[in-house]
Amino acid sequence: MDFSLRKDYRSHGSGRDWQGQLASLGDAAVVEDSVRIFHPASVSIGQGVYVGHDVVLDGYHAGALTIGEGTWIGAACFLHGAAGLHIGRCVGIGPRVVMLTSEHELHRVSVPVLHAPLRLRQVRIGDGADIGAGAIILPGSEIGEGAVIGAGAVVSGEIPAFAVAVGCPAKVVRIRGTGAGG
User: Fold this and answer.
1) How large is the greatest C-alpha to C-alpha distance in the chain, in angstroms?
2) Using CA atoms, how far apart are residues 120 and 116, in angstroms rounded to an integer?
3) For residue 28, with 0-12 CB atoms within 10 Å meaning exposed, 13-18 middle and 19 or more buried, which class applies?
4) How many angstroms separate the CA atoms of 52 and 15, rounded?
5) For the whole model, what pTM was predicted?
6) 25-34 — which CB contacts under 8 Å span 24+ positions?
7) Rounded distance, CA 171 to CA 174, Å?
8) I want to staple 60 with a disulfide (CB 3.0 to 4.6 A). Which of 8, 29, 82, 95 is the partner?
9) How far is CA 171 from CA 37, 86, 100, 105, 178, in A?
10) pLDDT tens readout for residues 83-134
């Protein structure tokens, strides 16, 4: 798979310089000025990454949020790294995508859900994957290399490499590279 980096990303605003505040920030990365980054010392952004307007990168104090080189993140996404969120190289992430790495435990009914302990589970997105607009990636999910997640899909669990998954819950409908049109 060709993971050559695009070099033509440009800010659509004034951008913001996060150099020295993040765990790492690659060359030619664009972080738009309205991006909010929590716990920036646990956030790593690779070379040539684009982070669109109004994105929230929630690096958290206990987990690392890493974004591989050449990845594009659309406007208004929420990416949560409490348990660790690893996004591979050259991943496309549409607008308003949500990736979560924590959920409340639901064992005791005597405790409001809001106050129940958190269960943390890492999320991994493979190189070259594409996540459609408005998709939700739940804690513990793993999306394989080159997989495509349809707009509005809700992923819980594992999506294999090169699979196309759609719906709520997301179901694999085909494998890329097989059949007519590949």
Assistant:
1) 55
2) 13
3) middle
4) 10
5) 0.90
6) 26/69
7) 9
8) 82
9) 32, 22, 19, 25, 17
10) 999 999 999 999 999 999 999 988 888 889 999 888 999 999 999 999 999 9
Q: Report the C-alpha gap between 156 and 171 in whole angstroms.
A: 10
Tallying the residues shown for the chain, one arrives at 182
- For the chain, domains (ranges, CATH) are 24-175 (2.160.10.10)
User: pLDDT for 132-182, tens place per residue?
Assistant: 999 999 999 999 999 999 999 999 999 999 999 999 999 999 999 876 555
Task: Check if the beta carbon of residue 132 is closer than 8 Å to that of residue 159.
Answer: no
CA distance 106 to 162: 34
Distance CA 1, CA 19 (A): 31
Sequence-distant contacts of 38-47: CB under 8 A, at least 24 apart: 39/81, 42/81, 43/67, 43/81, 45/18, 46/70, 46/71, 46/89, 47/5
Q: Which residue has the tokens 């949560």?
A: 80
